[in-house]
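The freezer alarm interrupted the setup, so I double-checked each line after restarting. Inputs confirmed:
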Amino acid sequence: MLKTDIQELVEETTGCPATCVSPVVCQGLANCPAAAFRPSPVILIPPTENADDEPQSKNFTSTRNACKLCTPLGACLVFRGVEGCIPFLHGSQGCSTYIRRYLISHFREPMDIASSNFHEESAIFGGSSNFQQGVLNVLRQYEPQLIGAATTCLAETIGEDMPSLLRDLHEKHGDRITAPIVTVSTASYRGTHMDGFHAAVKALVEQLGTSSACSSGRESAHSSNSESQSRLTSAATIQCEKRVNLFPGMVSTADLRHLKEILADFGLNYTLLPDYSETMDGETWLQYEKLQTGGTPLNAIAATGSAKASIEFGRTLASTETAGTSLQKKFNVVRHLLGLPIGIRESDAFFALLAGLSGQEIPVKSQRERGRLVDSLIDGHKYVFEKRAIVYGEEDLVIGLTSFLCEIGVTPVLCATGGHSKQFEKALREASPSLPAESLVKERFDFAEIAELALSLKPDFLIGSSKGYRTARELKVPLIRVGFPIHDRIGGQRVLHLGYRGAQELYDRIVNALLEVKQETSTVGYAYL
Amino acid sequence: MIELLPERQPQVVRKADGAPAADMACGKASTAGSVSQRACVFCGSRVVLYPIADALHIVHGPIGCAAYTWDIRGALSSGSQLHRNSFSTDLQEMDVIFGGEKKLEATLLELIAHHQPKAAFIYSTCIVGLIGDDVSAVCKRVSAKTGIPVLGVHSEGFKGTKKDGYRAACEAVYTLVGTGDTAGIAPHSINILGEFNLAGETWILRDYYKRLGIEVVACITGDSRIDDIRRAHGAKLNLVQCSGSMTSLAKMMERDYGIPFKRVSYFGIEDMSAALYEAAKYFSDDPTIMHRAQQLVREEVAAIYPELQRYKQKLVGKKAAIYVGGAFKAFSLMRALRLIGMETAIVGSQTGDKEDYKQLQEMADPGTIIVDDSNPLELAKFCLEKDVDLFIGGVKERPIAHKLGIGFCDHNHERKEPLAGYIGMLNFAKEVYASVASPVWQFAPRRARSK
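Predicted 3D structure, all chains:
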């Protein structure tokens, strides 16, 4: 048989017999390299200027446009998620004011953070007297149930020791100390805001948690059925039965509300810590509330030691001492570490765990939500398939988002974080086994580095906080705003990420952003999909 | 019920009818635990120098101070956007133990090589002094290697208040003044000090002075360039707007170069016009300047007055609270509010001095609350007591107003609409109107109940 030109060409280029006209037909032919061909989800990074190397960002000593915040910020947010608690920073006035301003720009709620307001003498002779005066003034002015005191780099550098400051305070003013004080060490030269966040949660359970704070009474303070019930708080008894702790990490107020709903649907009694769903996303008032209503009640924190299990979100926390590990050691509360439940599989794991802990089936409501989510992924799959995304933010948020993006067929070409737990890439690839090997996973990264890589990576969209806006604008691609901070939109604090419902919202936003680009750039301006 | 802390009481005054102005306590460190709205020394330096667009601004310390000040001001530049980045040495624990000088030097060298700035400012944060870094030695070395001025700013957060940060910034800037060539500067020339080109305000002002025939040599620091600052000593007059931050620079220039300075404000019709006449009077050797100033004021006022009157009709009798950084801005705001028919029921600042507060008391209506270095609880208490319709302040005050169902107008460095000049007055009236007249307040519990 005479070979056609095309067959010859195929033979030359594929090494397959001439009769084999396509790699698919070649399958099963042992000597044919193309036989190994499978439709593969692996996407090659298109050639960059320097095609042999992976795209590189020049190595800088400095941090340029950080993709992280300082440690005390995380602690302050946690403390505002505890009922009646006022955050207190032991350091300069500026630390508290900057952190307040930053949190306000995202949450659009009052965020009062007291400061011991160091001055020169405090830096030389120690901040004890400022600390004492500050605590007394805060107690008088705010009448808090708890003071959450965190250190700053200044206090840590001069060697302020919080336990001994507390001792001095009680010796001198014991009768006037009307609220407990939880302390946490948050030097900003150690870790990021996420480390401060987790450290504050740990400090709360270590300093307030007990194994005998619950009863088998009928009502529970911070439980299932009623939001108004949780506001009654302290006086209410805490139910031991079917009791779990949930330490969700830094998620949105909408996420916190959704988590409470899910736990309630499973009939679980729980301590959700922190819970700033009301304090940082509340209503308009008739009278000024010195400290916004809401937050995890203190007796619910006390009860963390008597729960049957703790659930902690954050794959990077595998080898970190956390609230969960602490409770496990001290009170034998079993710790379950899960990824942030973003997307289908990570949510499945969460729902399966809750089903196990509660002894109940996954509620029909959630099953339906999952079903609708899958249905919508099918409806929209074409518009997202092999789209290239840059994902950035806190380590565990990026891990969750990446997992979801891979599930829907998007290719994350760069997953970047300013965190530096050293667990990031391993944890991320475990959560997203289909992530192409070529995709870049970078920790200790900043926005200048992201912007530099973005030029050659040519993403179709960015997903992360408002901080990526400049890069998205330069590249003329959409930015899907998630996480923290979102300070250039209304409702940034209300973005839902978690569970099937969160995945649904994320999916709709992603697919619609891409459709909008397609529609806008279309020459005819079609009106149907 | 919100009570004032006893320590805070001397910093609050209620204007009594006919009584002489009371002596107000001010200018002191914030009370520990009072949740002051102030920031720190670093903040003072950073906000003042931030708009210098062709300089590198490096924050030497752990990441927070740099992260929280990344691109937060609306200070526009007509060219270089370098100032809108956040550069930090991002000190880690080992740097704190072994010192951060090497990291600072490496940071400077790499960033200067990469960005080719005209100068570099190094902001020292709290711990830099404590760990003993010799920042000025690094500055000298790097300056010698790179040939550009590398200036340390002594802005350790705890070493004073925001005002000390202003002074540190002025001192750093002043080392540049006098190093440039003043050839070709017109006989009628000014510098504008303490104007930051928020939302392009400097451009509006430059246009006015140009129309008067007056050359603006340097605006420090709105849309500022290092080369302009270097030749600022060639100007004949300094006009100081944000007096809290820039008076010390004006005084140094007066002392060393004999350049007199005048305090002005560009907010509101009256103050804006006064600022133009001030310069025209100073250059009385050319009477056409005054003539042109009068002409300009007439034209500009005529262009906005009818519309202002329309807003006034809607706003007359409404009450406002003002809480801003510097007291001088508060004067202008009170006058501007009066022009659109509104009363000021509460007025305060973070950094006012005794003279400022005396003047505020003189200007205020009887019953007005005047406050220094206030905090959220006090401001909320005063707002409820006075039942105000509008709060004028910055980001940190916004939720206080909004939670109580009170309109809010941002007059801080994040604003996106110019509020200076005549067009600024019109924008201000528009924003006040939009804040007060929106139908949403009817649903706020405070208003819903009074219905």
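Quick read of the result. Chain B has a mean pLDDT of 94.
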